[in-house]
Design goal:
GO terms for molecular function: pyridoxal phosphate binding; transaminase activity. The protein is of the alpha/beta class. The chain is 37% helix and 16% strand. The strands form three sheets. A seven-stranded mixed β-sheet has the order 4-10-9-8-7-5-6, sandwiched between helices. Strands 1-2-3-13 form a four-stranded mixed β-sheet. A four-stranded antiparallel β-sheet has the order 11-12-15-14. The protein is globular. The two termini are 37 Å apart. The structure holds 4'-deoxy-4'-aminopyridoxal-5'-phosphate. The site of 4'-deoxy-4'-aminopyridoxal-5'-phosphate has 16 residues, from helix 4.
Length: 449
C-alpha cells in the first residue's frame, strides 16, 4: 500500500482495510472474515450492510443532504424527533440533534445549566459524575468522565466532576453486597452534594451500564432509584448517558427503564445511527424544557451539522428497522443465553474474574487470581493482548478499562449486533473459546519462559 497520512490509533501498527460488511460479519481486502462481536464500538446495532438503511440514505440524499438548522427544518428531523418522543418513557419529548456521543453529553450538560439559569439561578453549573465512567472526549465531556487514562494528559484543563465511586460490585470498595450494603456507593452522592453545595450543582450524570471505562458494569437493583431520589431531594437534575445503552442494547429502549427510573435528560449516540451516519441527541423532559421555552426559547448550543437531514433520515430508518423486525424484545433472552455460556468459561479459564452486563452489553474482567481477584499488572497489557489474539482469530471484541489507576482490572466488552442469530452466537462463543485458549497458552509460555 502507498504511504499513509491518516492518523490512526497506533501509527506503528498495520490496520486491515475493510472491504465490506454484511450482517454480523466484516470482510477485509484480503478476504479475511471478522465476526463483529463488538458492533465496532457498541454501535452497529443492526449489523452491517442493511439495504433498507442505505436506500433511506439515498432517498434523502436525492432530495437534499444539508439544510442549516437556523434557516430550515426538515421532514426527516421532524419525524425522528416525533418517533423518539413516542418511544421515550415519561415526557422525555424534546430532541436536540448533534453528531457524536461527546456532543450529546455536552449538550445535556449545557441544557442542565441553562435550566437553572432560566430560573435566575446562576451558580448551579457543576455536573457531578462517577469514577470509572466515560462520557466523551471533548473537554466538557471529558471533565465529566471518570476515566483516568483518558483524562491524564488534559487534567489542568478539566473540571473535577467525577466525585463518587461506581456501583462496581465485583470490587466493592466497602466490601459489602447489595442490597445489604444499602447502596453505600450511591449514598456517596449525598455526601458529595453536601460537601460541594447543592447551590453549585446543576446535575449528576451516569451511564446506566458502565461501558468503555469499566467493561459492562451494571448496577444492583435499587441503585438508580437511590441516585434519582438523592438528586430530587437536593434539586439536582439526573442525566442518563445512554450513548452506549440507548435504543435497545440492554433489551429496553432506555437502559434506565430496567431499573424503573426516568431521567430528566438523556444523551444518545452510537446505536441511534447504528454506524450508518454520525448522529446523536440530547433529549430533555417537559420539566427541563419549560423554563427554557418560557425564557431564551432555545437550547443555547448547536453545530453546523445539527439535525442534518441525511443523518436524521438514517436514524429514522434504523429505528423503524428495529421496530419492524421486533429486535429489541429478543435482546434479553439472547443476552441471558450468551452470558450464561460465557459464565461457564470461568471453570475452564482461571484468569476470568467476572462475567457481567445486561442484555447484549456484556463484559469479561480478567484477573491474575480468581480467588483473590488480583488484577494483572497494568504493564502486562492483558486487554490489548486478548483483543489482538481475538482479531487474529477473526473476532472483534471491545477493550475496556480505566487505564492507569489500577482501580479496576483488564476487561473486554462483548456486544454483537442486536440482530445476531442463535447460530452466530454459537460461532461467537467458539471464537471466544479459541481466543481465550490461545491467550492461556501465551501467558503460560511467558510464565514458564
Ligand atoms: N458516552 C458513552 C457512554 C460512550 O460510551 C461514548 C463512546 N464510547 C461517548 C459518550 C462518546 O461518544 P463519541 O465517541 O461518539 O463522541
Amino acid at each position: 500500500m502507498e504511504k499513509s497520512f491518516l492518523i490512526k490509533p497506533m501509527l506503528d501498527e498495520i490496520y486491515p482495510v475493510i472491504d465490506y460488511g454484511k450482517g454480523v460479519y466484516l470482510y477485509d481486502m484480503e478476504g479475511k472474515k471478522y465476526l463483529d462481536a463488538a458492533s465496532g464500538a457498541v454501535t452497529a446495532n443492526i449489523g452491517h450492510g442493511v439495504l433498507e438503511i442505505i436506500e433511506a440514505m439515498e432517498e434523502q440524499a436525492k432530495k437534499v443532504s444539508f439544510v442549516y438548522r437556523s434557516q430550515f427544518t426538515s421532514e426527516a428531523a421532524e419525524k425522528l424527533a416525533k418517533k423518539i418522543a413516542d418511544w421515550m418513557p415519561g415526557d422525555l419529548n424534546w430532541s436536540f440533534f448533534v453528531n457524536s456521543g461527546s456532543e450529546a453529553t455536552e449538550t445535556a450538560m449545557k441544557m442542565a445549566i441553562q435550566y437553572w439559569q432560566e430560573q435566575g439561578i446562576l451558580t448551579k453549573t457543576k455536573v457531578l459524575s462517577r469514577w470509572v465512567s466515560y462520557h466523551g472526549i471533548t473537554l466538557g465531556a471529558l471533565s465529566m468522565s471518570g476515566h483516568t487514562g483518558r483524562r491524564a494528559r488534559f487534567v489542568p484543563l478539566l473540571e473535577d466532576f467525577p466525585v463518587i465511586n461506581p456501583p462496581y460490585c465485583y470490587r466493592c470498595p466497602y466490601n459489602l453486597e447489595a442490597p445489604a450494603c444499602g447502596y453505600a456507593c450511591a449514598n456517596e452522592l449525598e455526601m458529595a452534594i453536601k460537601r460541594i453545595g447543592a447551590d453549585q450543582i446543576a446535575a449528576f450524570i451516569a451511564e446506566p451500564v458502565i461501558g468503555a471505562a469499566g467493561g459492562a458494569i451494571a448496577p444492583p437493583k435499587d441503585y438508580f432509584k437511590t441516585i434519582k431520589k438523592i438528586c430530587e431531594d437536593n434539586n439536582i437534575l439526573f442525566i442518563a448517558d445512554e450513548v452506549m445503552t440507548g435504543f435497545g442494547r440492554t433489551g429496553t429502549v432506555l437502559a434506565c427503564e430496567q431499573w424503573d427510573v426516568i431521567p430528566d435528560i438523556v444523551a444518545f449516540g452510537k446505536g441511534m445511527g447504528a454506524g450508518y451516519a454520525p448522529i446523536a441527541a440530547a433529549v430533555a423532559s417537559e420539566k427541563v424544557m419549560a423554563p427554557i421555552l418560557a425564557g431564551t426559547k432555545s437550547v443555547m448550543s448547536g453545530h453546523t451539522l445539527s439535525a442534518n437531514p441525511q443523518s436524521c433520515a438514517v436514524s429514522l430508518a434504523v429505528l423503524e428497522y428495529l421496530e419492524k423486525n421486533v429486535i429489541i424484545k429478543e435482546v434479553e433472552s439472547k443476552g441471558i443465553f450468551l452470558k450464561n455460556q460465557l459464565e461457564k468459561l470461568k471453570e475452564q479459564f482461571s484468569f476470568i474474574g467476572d462475567v457481567r452486563g445486561k442484555g447484549l452489553l456484556l463484559g469479561i474482567e480478567f484477573v491474575e487470581d480468581q480467588e483473590t481477584k488480583t488484577p494483572f499488572p497494568r504493564k502486562a497489557f492483558i486487554t490489548q493482548k486478548v483483543v489482538r489474539i481475538a482479531m487474529e482469530k477473526g473476532l472483534l471484541v471491545y477493550p475496556a478499562g480505566a487505564g492507569i489507576d489500577g482501580v479496576n482490572g483488564d476487561a473486554i466488552i462483548i456486544s454483537p449486533p442486536l440482530t445476531i442469530t442463535e447460530k452466530e452466537i454459537e460461532n461467537l462463543l467458539l471464537l471466544v473459546k479459541e481466543t481465550l485458549a490461545a491467550f492461556s497458552n501465551q501467558i503460560n509460555a511467558e510464565t514458564v519462559g
